[in-house]
Write a structure and sequence with these properties.
With 655 residues, this protein is an alpha/beta fold. The protein has three domains: 255 residues, 2-enoyl-CoA Hydratase, Chain A, domain 1, CATH 3.90.226; 177 residues, NAD(P)-binding Rossmann-like Domain (Rossmann fold, 3-Layer(aba) Sandwich); 145 residues, N-(1-d-carboxylethyl)-l-norvaline Dehydrogenase, domain 2 (Orthogonal Bundle), CATH 1.10.1040.50. The protein has 27 helices and 19 strands. The protein binds (S)-3-Hydroxyhexanoyl-CoA.
Length: 655
């Protein structure tokens, strides 16, 4: 196998070129190749060395697929130290995404330059890790303690100009990185600029309380996670000790994190997310249909959010409603959302205006005649949906993709009312649709391969994470929510309170406890959906009697000021004895004896419900693989990524 690292002597500059697609990850062969190149440069007439990458990016980090296997020498920290100790100046030239161990290679180099379009970051925290090749020690020496903590605890990359301002790099070039870097090195050589080692820099003065401030902030923001706290510990060591001691501490802490459950879960999730984009039986690079214009039917919360999602990604959108009033209402919600985004600093005023300008309103289906894709987003009435699809069949151009945003309905039955079921698909967005990353792509029995491939690709353009689901009631996510919700109701009847269940699940890491979620979604939604179901699908009445009684008492959830909780004017949930009374009465009605229930039992019971249904979903071929279910739950239902998703957690915990 040829080495992925090539060394050449160009004039008096030694050039180390890494060419290891797709992202120049620092696998064993790359690490060895860099060491061999340094050997060559040490022994030749080079006066300086350049490290640069081929392909779309500078090294995007250590090779994650090697993690969890026995480490093989040379280790990355040794490679970085060898670069730094080199007695000829070493320059790193960055493009694309210089991330993690990739940026640590650059931190080992004596000088750093980047293309203006480059992104620079230390995202290890997202894998439950910390920069383990000197990053926690060199970054604060170059950029200061606060900037280093921000970069590493958030994991969010910065652009080249911000990196320059922070002192992380020395030069930004607009084009021709290799040429510009070579010219700069020639200058350095002329000036006799020798090696300049980050490890030898002192750490700039900082507020001694900064570490505890970050610990407290991260305990809230990254609740339950160990890696962000470990990063603070390492930077504190950098500030308190010599480089070598700090480096040893970093190494030991890195190895502990690597061996822990959280990093295993996050690494699983990293690959799960990428795997989800691959569709079984669909050739890589399968043909797709061009999509530039989109019609959305229904200007409610979902339709408006979907319209924004497309407009924000540059598509021309036509939002169709049944009347001028309904259209005005829909567009004014869109306007309000854009104003909110500007206020919160998420969008500039100009960008918001440009995005908003891409959304046109209409009450006439004729305006959908030429669009490439239509998404129906009206309420869950199967008859209405079929009516709309029959109309679309008569209106839209041949080849247009006809999608439904239904959360539950049978996509095949909807497709069957058209003369082109091959063009029909489900695109299930999650609310708020312009923010939530998950997109369930529902493959109907007759959905054509190119329609599916187009929608998977489209999701990427929308910056969503697509997961393919087969057709069943509720698809992957909402189908799993049903047994989960039923167990919640049984736990209430058996003795747990709403507050206890929510606290237990939030303690586990869920973004929000189930009863708060039900209240937020509106208890009337489930009530109406249940009424439309045949008795055999409703299941045991004990699993829905309490919410039914709440709805009948006018407690529809947060929107009516009361549901499983009472809500104060700020929307804060307050436990309500009236609800306890309804629960106790219902338990008596069903002859259920109430008892003390521990938090661990609550968590285990609810996770089992998810895992059991998840296994059925895979066995039936509704989901392609268990890891797809993890992606659905993390991106759509607030499941903590650091637990890996319900299926990963279930397997690890032996459920
Ligand atoms: C680290 O560096 C630890 C050190 O501090 C200390 C060590 C001692 N390794 O995302 P994409 C694969 S931890 C292996 O679809 P994009 C990926 O699986 C690391 N494989 O492309 C996919 O494979 P496939 C810190 C990797 O353009 C393919 O490349 N670094 C790695 O949307 C394309 O990926 C990170 O956490 C890797 N490091 O995004 C960065 N990275 O085609 C992680 C990617 O078979 N990577 N692959 O499915 C990323 O954030 C994105 O991949 C990146 C490109 C932004 C680079």
């Amino acid at each position: 196998m040829p080495s992925p690292v090539n060394y050449t002597l160009t004039g008096d500059i030694g050039v180390i070129t890494i060419d290891h697609p797709p992202v120049n990850a620092l696998s064993l062969a790359v690490r060895q190749g860099i060491m061999d190149s340094l050997d060559a440069a040490a022994g030749d007439a080079s006066r300086a060395v350049l490290i640069i990458c081929e392909g779309r990016t500078f090294c995007a980090g250590a090779d994650i697929s090697e993690f969890g296997k026995p480490p093989e020498e040379p280790w990355l920290p040794a490679v970085v130290n060898r670069i730094e100790a080199f007695d000829k100046p070493v320059v790193a030239a960055l493009h694309g995404t210089a991330l993690g161990g990739g940026f640590e290679i650059a931190l080992g180099a004596h000088y750093r330059c980047a293309l203006a379009s480059a992104k620079i970051g230390l995202p290890e925290v997202r894998l439950g890790l910390l920069p383990g090749a000197g990053g926690t020690q060199r970054t604060p020496r170059l950029a200061g303690v606060g900037a280093a903590l921000d970069l590493m605890t958030s994991g969010v990359p910065v652009d080249a100009h911000r990196a320059l301002a922070a002192g992380l790099i020395d030069r930004v070039f607009d084009a021709d990185l290799a040429d510009a870097a070579m010219a700069w090195i020639a200058e350095l050589v002329d000036e006799d600029a020798g090696p300049r080692r980050a490890s030898e820099l002192p750490i700039a003065a900082h507020d001694g309380g900064i570490f505890d401030q970050y610990r407290a902030r991260l305990a809230k923001k990254a609740r339950g996670q160990v890696a962000p706290q470990a990063i603070v510990d390492c930077v504190e060591q950098a500030a308190m000790t010599e480089f070598a001691d700090g480096e040893a501490f970093e190494r030991e802490t890195f190895m502990k994190l690597m061996a822990g459950d959280q990093s295993a879960a996050l690494r699983h999730f990293f690959f799960a997310e990428r795997e989800a984009a691959k569709v079984e039986g669909l050739a890589m690079g399968a043909q797709t249909r061009p999509i530039e214009s989109v019609g959305i039917i229904g200007g409610g919360t979902m339709g408006g959010g979907i319209a924004m999602s497309f407009a924000n990604a540059g598509f021309a959108v036509t939002l169709v409603e049944i009347s001028d009033e309904a259209l005005d209402r829909g567009l004014s919600i869109v306007d309000r959302n854009y104003t909110g985004s500007v206020k919160r600093g998420k969008l500039s005023e100009d960008a918001a205006a440009a995005n908003r300008a891409r959304i046109a309103g209409s009450t006439d289906y004729a305006n959908l005649a030429d669009v490439d894709l239509v998404i129906e987003a009206v309420f869950e009435d199967p008859g209405l949906k079929k009516e709309i699809f029959a109309r679309l069949d008569g209106t839209c151009k041949p080849g247009a993709i006809l999608a439904t945003n239904t959360s539950y309905q049978d996509v095949d039955a909807i497709a069957a009312v058209t003369g082109r079921p091959q063009d029909v698909i489900g695109l299930h967005f999650f609310s708020p649709a312009h923010i939530m990353k998950l997109l369930e792509v529902v493959r109907g029995e007759k959905t054509a391969d190119d329609v599916l491939a187009t929608c998977m690709q489209l999701a990427k353009r929308l910056r969503k994470v697509p997961v393919v689901s087969g057709v069943c009631y509720g698809f992957i996510g909402n189908r799993m929510l049903r047994p989960y919700g039923k167990q919640v109701q049984l736990l209430l009847l058996e003795g747990a309170s709403p507050g206890q269940i929510d606290a237990a699940m939030e303690g586990f890491g869920m973004a929000m406890g189930p009863l708060r979620v039900f209240d937020l979604a509106g208890l009337d939604v489930g009530y109406k959906a249940r009424q439309a179901l045949p008795d055999e699908m409703k299941g045991d009445p004990a699993t829905y009697r309490v919410p039914e009684l709440l709805v009948e008492a006018g407690r529809l959830g947060q929107k009516s000021g009361a549901g499983f909780y009472r809500y104060d004017d700020d929307g804060k949930p307050i436990p309500d004895p009236a609800v306890d009374e309804i629960i106790e009465r219902t338990a008596q009605e069903f002859g259920i004896e109430r008892r003390e229930i521990g938090d661990d039992e609550i968590v285990e019971c609810l996770l089992r419900a998810l895992v059991d249904e998840g296994r059925k979903i895979v066995a039936e071929g509704i989901a392609q693989r268990e890891s797809d279910i993890d992606v659905v739950y993390v991106y759509g239902y607030g499941f903590p990524a650091w637990r890996g998703g319900p299926m990963h957690y279930g397997a690890a915990a032996g459920l």
